[in-house]
Amino acid sequence: MDSIQKLYRLLLFLVVGGLAWNILPFLGTVIVMLIFSFLFTTIFLQSVDSLERTIHSRGGSVILIIGSVISLGLWFFGSFIANIGSQIKEFTSKLQQEDFALSLEALSIKTREYLPDFMSNMIPESEKIISIAKDSLGNVFQNILSLLGSAGSFFFLAVMILIFTIILLIEYHDFKRSLVQFIPNKYLEVGLRMIYNIEQQISSYLRGQILAAGSVAILSIIGLFILNQTGANMTLIVFIGIIAGLANLIPMVGPFVGMIPAILIALMNNLGNDAALAHQLFGVIPSPFFMLDIIFMFIIVQQIDNNFITPILVGESVGLHPMAVMIVLLIGGTMMGPLGMLFAIPTAGVLKVIISEIIFISKNSHLL
Amino acid sequence: MKSLYENFFKKNNSSDPILHVMEKVPIFGNFTMKELKEVARLTHERSYKVGEPIFKKLSPGEGMYVILNGTVEIKDPDSNTVFAKLESGDFFGELALLDEEPRSAMAIATESAKLIGFFRTDLLTLMNRDPELGNKILMNLSRVLGERLRRTNLELTQAN
Known about the structure:
Number of strands of chain A: 2
CATH architecture of chain B: Sandwich
Order of helices and strands of chain A: HHHHHHHHHHEEHH
Helix content of chain A: over 70%
Low-confidence stretches of chain A: none
CATH superfamily of chain B: Jelly Rolls
Strand content of chain B: 15-25%
Distance between the termini of chain B: 59 Å
Radius of gyration of chain B: 17 Å
Distance between the termini of chain A: 20 Å
Structural class of chain A: mainly alpha
Number of helices of chain B: 5
Strand order of the largest sheet of chain A: 1-2
Number of domains of chain B: 1
Order of helices and strands of chain B: HHHEEEEEEEEHH
Shape of chain B: globular
Low-confidence stretches of chain B: 1-11
Oligomer: heterodimer
Largest interface: A-B, 21 and 23 residues
Largest sheet of chain B: 4 strands, antiparallel
Mean pLDDT of chain A: 79
Mean pLDDT of chain B: 86
CATH class of chain B: Mainly Beta
């Protein structure tokens, strides 16, 4: 290649790069939609393929699977919102009662007793807590309404992701074939191996994560059920379990997010109950409103998940060093928040496959 | 009556050159037209210029090729020994469907050629989607390899 040709290539690269840099912010939403659609496609691909074998219709199997998932999701959120609504209503009426204020005062005093002096000043007065709780709960429904108002763009995004996912699921194998056509002959076999490895990496990771989330949900439900037998007076345990399972999809932070609804429900249900206020974990450690019991139960579930379930289900699917996982999570979290943390590990897994193939190509270029 | 049935209920598949060539390959032998189409959906049609290598010696094998048209030579690039001259309907590289061992020879297009590539990743996908069909391919592949082993044994016996 002569120097003028090199110069032209460099100029072309700069022009294309500059254009891409300027256009990218406008394409950001489309790229996010495509990434989500691709991930959902990877999750459902195997089920669609299996169903297609039975009913002999690709379109039919896609509609059946996606339809069932959407119906299940709608049913879950519908009943969750209805249940949490009545729970909040009940709690708001509880707040109006006088004995409730006394119970809160008792909790405030008890907490101050166990905390060192410098920290006890940080606990607000009970009236203050009630007024804060009243204000915030009164605003919950207003917040939900305003949230629904701003949910228009989210709804549009969700519908577009759904449409992309359906198209990708129906056309997946043909789409992949068309993509392979663009690979030069020289890199055909390496390219095919790379695509296959990336597919395997993502699908095994996602499938493992979903199974692990399901197991965490079931274990949390069992744990909360056992706590109920000891008088924890927990409601919505199925919903709390499912939320804990879903939150578990976000590594490291998720498990802590998962226990928050459980603690809130325990607080709402047990405020005003003296026995719950005086409850002690193992009869030794004070655990007002079973809060420590709940935290302890979630820690046990996490230990079972981390030491038995995830290693078996997810295994070495991504094959990253724990230190690398933490760094990748930090980068993902800094760049895109919880969403970034959710996608950080599979993205790192894909990058690992691509880098290892590039290293292979550079080492064995004489064989291509 | 038969022609009426063929016209209305069966597509005329002889017009599809890929299916036409594939049904002659022993690995896809005894396949129904529906099964053949299922496999064809996973294959990749590639064009090669004269003198363009399809794969090089010692490169990791990923799959087999069936020649749609043109000619291909299988040779050892070190000694320039030509092991086989292949033409339309012939196939090569089928061992790579089973393992990732390096290719023992190179394949090069001696005329501009159109090939169908069927790769290990395609076979694995097929085994996931349709295990019965995947097993059928594996059985046929074993039969082809067994046949070749028997022939090699016979040649060795005759040479001794």
